[in-house]
Amino acid sequence: MKTESTVFRLVAKTTSGLEAVLAEEIRLLGGQNIEIMTRAVAFEGDKKLMYRANYELRTALRILKHVTSFKTSNEQKFYDEIRNIQWQMHMNVENTFSIDGVVSGGLFTHSQYVAFKAKDAIADQFRDRMGIRPSVNTTNPDLRINIQIQEDQVNLSFDSSGDSLHKRGYRNIVDKAPINEVLAAGLILLSGWKADTPFVDAMCGSATIPIEAAMFAMKIPSGYFRKEYGFMKWSDFDQELWNSVCSEANEKICDFNHEIFASDHSAKAIDIAGQNLHSANLHKDIRLFKKPMEFLIPPEAPGILIINPPYGERLEENDLKALYMNIGDSLKRNFKGYKAWVISSDFQVLKHVGLKPSKKLIVYNGPLECRFVCFDIFEGSLKDKKTREADAKS
Ligand SMILES: C[S@@+](CC[C@H](N)C(=O)[O-])C[C@H]1O[C@@H](n2cnc3c(N)ncnc32)[C@H](O)[C@@H]1O
Question: Partner of 204 at 20 to 30 A CA spacing, among 127, 165, 242, 284?
Fold first, then answer.
């Protein structure tokens, strides 16, 4: 594989609702010509930026490096175009490859068929020239090829990440319904928390949200615990550049001067959370409690709470109502001065919190459309707060 070291187009994939925070992360990293798309952000950068994007972006699922684009009008033309690419510049016959196809529009309707055609075109080119062909490996290929077709427009990219970037390498064990690490990081960025107050997750399960919060607050790169990326198998892999990308990012790791609390009422969840905190080496930075939310006394306000309570599938409707009413009562009683964010796919049951949200965002947890809502828990009543603000202005 051979890739140029000049500027090229990259596409960072993400989940719906996180595009804007991902674009901001890319801007901070130095990406140029940033363009927000659906579940993705396109930008331009060089090889160093591609390595940094993989190592540092918290809300990207994978980083695709653009290789070529062309228009096609039928299957045969598509096959010919793929076959005309100089594949030997990108891989050897001993390398394995896989193809992810994504199609939209009426011209091509089956992504698997597209992947199958492209695989044939690549194999046929090698067989013609060398008498043998490279093998397909869908689990751990040397080169992951991504083909995206919209109507007659074909974009072919190489997946520089390999496995999805939500696989950070610290979470070896999970409890029920764990949240994806990329979504957890996205919720933290969407909440606007600047790591300048305490952070609490009072329904922490496997501790994904507090671990992502600590990594964000301490500037621990998202890839700090991960060993492998797709680009490491490319023939232009620059070990020295990669080492410098890692050490430059690691030098920024700092202490966090506020507390992070993680708690859950389930002993099993706390056991799993404890193991994950150890594996992320954050067991001294995050305080873990086995407690129902209603008994948790958080650090002094102001602070931020993010919780991911159980969704509908596992509880009876009445239990679920009671749970969300309890959340509202706990917030009013113990979280005064906090911004409390709740993610839930059950829009009806969220109303039982009994507080008026100050913000409502739409995000997706896998296929589930969710609301991510913020409740400002004022010291006194809302009326008191308005009176105090008016007094302060006069
Ligand atoms: C959807 S899971 C959270 C998953 C978590 N975000 C993760 O990534 O693993 C919901 C959690 O809420 C906890 N829970 C439910 N009711 C609770 C309560 N009243 N107090 C504390 N924890 C509670 C459950 O034990 C469960 O671990």
Answer: 165
Q: Are residues 221 and 369 in the same domain?
A: yes
Q: Per-residue pLDDT tens for 307-321?
A: 999 976 666 667 889
Q: Is 175 in the pocket of ligand 1 (CB under 6 A)?
A: yes
Same domain, 202 and 326: yes
Q: Which of 127, 159, 191 is the last residue of a domain?
A: 159
b/e string for 290-329 if b means 16 or more Cβ within 10 A?
Answer: eeebeebebbebebbbbbbbbbeeebeeeebeebbebbbe
Any atom of ligand 1 within 6 Å of the Cβ of 315: no
Task: Please report which residue ranges of the chain form alpha helices under DSSP H.
Answer: 19-29, 47-56, 75-84, 111-130, 181-190, 208-217, 239-250, 267-279, 317-334, 347-350, 382-393
CA 101/CA 307 separation, integer angstroms:
35
* Together in a domain, 302 and 206: yes
Q: Containing domain of residue 352, as a range? A: 181-225+259-386
Specify if 391 maps to a domain: no
**39 inside domain:** yes
What's the pLDDT score for residue 3?
45
Query: Rounded to an integer, what distance in angstroms lies between the CA atom of residue 124 and that of residue 364?
Result: 40
Are 150 and 185 members of one domain? no
For residue 85, how far is its CA from the centre of ligand 1 (angstroms)? 50
pLDDT in tens, 55-86: 999 999 999 999 999 999 999 999 999 999 99
Q: Scan for tokens 């006394």, then name that residue.
A: 297
Q: Is residue 291 part of a domain?
A: yes
Measured by CA distance, the residue closest to atom 14 of ligand 1 is: 203
Find the 225 Cα to ligand 1 centroid distance in Å: 25
